Structures are given as C-alpha cells and as structure tokens.
Amino acid sequence: MVESLTRLGIRLDHDPAAATIAIDGCRGLPPAKNAELYLENSGTSIRFLTALCCLGRGSYRLDGNARMRARPIGDLTAALGSLGARVRCELNNGCPPVVVEGSGVIGGKVQVAGNTSSQFLSALLMAAPAAFEPVTMEVAGNLVSEPYAEMTLKVCAAFGVSIESPAAGVYRLRPQRYQARSYAIEPDASAASYFFAAAAITVGEVTVPGLSRGALQGDVAFVDVLEQMGCAVESGPDSITVRGGALRGVEVDMNAISDTAQTLAAIAPFAKGATRIRNVAHIRHKETDRIAALAAELKRIGQKVEEFPDGLKITPAKVKPATIETYDDHRMAKSFAVTGLKAPGIVISSPECTGKTYPAFFEDLAALVCG
Fold it and tell me: Do 39 and 98 meet the contact criterion of CB atoms below 8 Å apart?
C-alpha cells in the first residue's frame, strides 16, 4: 500500500520502527498521471486503490500475483462505473488486472453487492466524498463482515466526512473534503486473536493493551467466542485479558468476524465436543479458499472434519504431528502456529507468508511462550 501510494505521487514518511506514518493529502486527486501498481495478494489494497485511482486524471493499472488474479473485484468496478468512473477488468473476467482511465467520479445512485466482501462498500465510501455530485449507495443483499463497514464510517467521520445512513444498507453523502488530523490506530484485533487463542489452549493468561470491547474492529468479538468455550475474559477501558480453561465446542455464526474463523478452527481440536463454524462462505475468496484449506490441514493433523458450503464442523481427535501447508495465506500460518503450542510436531510450511500483515509474528509468539 505504501509503495503504491508513492507511485501515485502521494508524499509520505513511513517509520516502521516508530510505528508512524505521515501522509500529505492530495485533496482527492492523485498527482501521478500514470502508474503501474502491483499489490501481490493484498485484496484490501487493490480494492481501496482501485477506487482511489478513479479519482485521478490519467491511466492506471493494478495487478497482483496468480491468486490475486482469481479474486473477485467485478462488483466494485461495476459500481464505480455506475458512478461515472472509467474502469474495467483487463481480462473481462471480473478479476484483476484492473485498468482505470481516470477522469474523476461523477456521482449519483448505485447498488453495490455485499455478499462477497465488505471492502467493495468501504472502497466506495472512502472515495465518494471526492465525487462531483452527491452519492447514494445501497447494498444489494446481505453484507458480509458488516462491522468493517461501520468501522469505515467511523474513520471517515474522524477525518471530518459526514455520511448519512437513513436505513440499513443505505448510505448518502455530499461532495466534501477530509480534514487532516493526528490519528491513533488501534491494535489489530485479528492479530490479537492468535494470542488470545494461545491463552485459551495453554490455560495461560494474555492481556492486550490498547484494545477494548468498544473497539472499532468487529474482530474483537472473538473473545466472546472464547468466553462461550470456557475462557475467562476481562475487559477494561483500554485492555482485554483472556485466561484459558477447559474448552468446550461451540456452534457459532462467524460472518461478522470471519478473519478469526481460522483461529477458532486451529484450537477446536482441544475442545470437548464438536465446533461448528457457520455463515462464512465468502472466505472461499480470500488469499486461498480458507474453508477448503482448513478442512485439508485439520484432516492432516488427524481431525474429523465435515466441510459445508458456508463453513465446517470439527470433531476433536488426538492431534497428529504434521507439516501444515499455508497456501500463501498468512492466517493459515499464524493459526496453526497456535495449534503447535499445545501439540508437538506441528511444522509450518512457508512461514514467511506472515510477513504480509505481521512480520514479527513468530518473534512475538516466541517471546510470549519463552519470556
């Protein structure tokens, strides 16, 4: 994302050591007239940047690796086209590469599909304030990962943009500009799930500061699932603590917190009774088909697994040593690394894939268990 913003001519200063980034805004008009953006397998980046490029005045092409070229983006390009943008999927298959002939976004009314990814809606919400005319969006069907849309609205509001939602799934906004400010980014609730899960299966205790149940991120609700399983959860105004205990299987609708479905699946072998994960059909379109990948790797370690179109059921059995295939999916590696804290002989293949979102994951995990 940082590299692509730079290619679009946006000035920024990123200091990873200090965990800060300073960005000079471009008033809704990316300066570069031409850019080739390569997003590897970051679906968030390519979807948000596709909307941003439509605000530009020039030619832009966005591409990624082989898996990215199989991930859907056609619903977003169609919605942007309805708002007057000139954008298309280069191979006419609804997937990247995406080609944008930037001439701005006019505005108007648009329907956006919600059953594949909430990121399509978020991309439109973030770009629409720079449209020439007012915009009304209506989500067609059920919106998956709905808390992320609410998070987008709150972040937009924090930067001075007003978006009305007169009815469920309907959003209205007028042309306006974001206002510069300093902004503290919450700890990553999805990443925190691995450490909460570690406490759950080792009967240990983990506290994550800076994160509360009132966080913007829906994935903080993963601790509620752990509480249902038998963990003790304490939430303060600026921290959450999980203490592990005897776990029991649960049946849970994880549509709103689907990025933590793999975390739950990875600790399900240590619960008493089966665990059923439901309503996450959309995760088949992530970095890999996450339902199929989970079923394959859980079976590899000796678990009984029933796969369904929208999820899976895991019946615990003795965990067998195995090398876990990660499918170039950072969440597969991190989730099954937690399994390995409890069961000997778990080896993670291609662990470097965690670098996509959490380069220091294994160092932090080691510090947790050895510190």
Answer: no
The greatest distance separating any two alpha carbons of the chain, rounded to the nearest whole angstrom, comes to 61
Tell me the backbone φ, ψ of residue 264, rounded to 5 degrees: -65, -45
- The low-confidence residues of the chain, meaning pLDDT below 50, are none
pLDDT in tens, 34-72: 999 999 999 999 999 999 999 999 999 999 999 999 999
pLDDT at 18 (0 to 100): 94
Active site residues: 259
pTM equals 0.85
To 10 degrees, the CA torsion angle through 197, 199, 202, 203?
-130
Using the CB atoms, write b or e for 307-335: b if 16+ within 10 Å.
Answer: eeebbbbbbbeebeebebbbbbbbbbbbb
Number of neighbours of residue 179 by Cβ within 10 angstroms: 10
CA–CA separation, 204 vs 244, rounded Å? Answer: 5
pLDDT score at 370: 66
* 133, two tokens: 């005319």
Residue 228, judged by CB atoms within 10 A of its CB (0-12, 13-18, 19+), counts as middle
Q: Residue 221: its pLDDT value, please?
A: 96
Alpha-carbon torsion angle 127, 130, 133, 139, nearest 10: 10
pLDDT of residue 19: 92
Q: What's the pLDDT tens digit per position in 202-231?
A: 999 999 999 999 899 999 999 999 999 999
Residue 142 is predicted with a pLDDT of 86
Beta strands in 87-154 (DSSP E): 87-89, 98-101, 108-113, 135-140
Map tokens 């009305």 to a residue.
164
Locate all alpha helices (DSSP H) within 212-311, ordered by sequence: 222-229, 261-267, 290-300
Name all domains of the chain by residue range, CATH numbers in brackets: 2-173 (3.65.10.10), 189-370 (3.65.10.10)
Angle at 181 between CA 168 and CA 10, to 5 degrees: 95
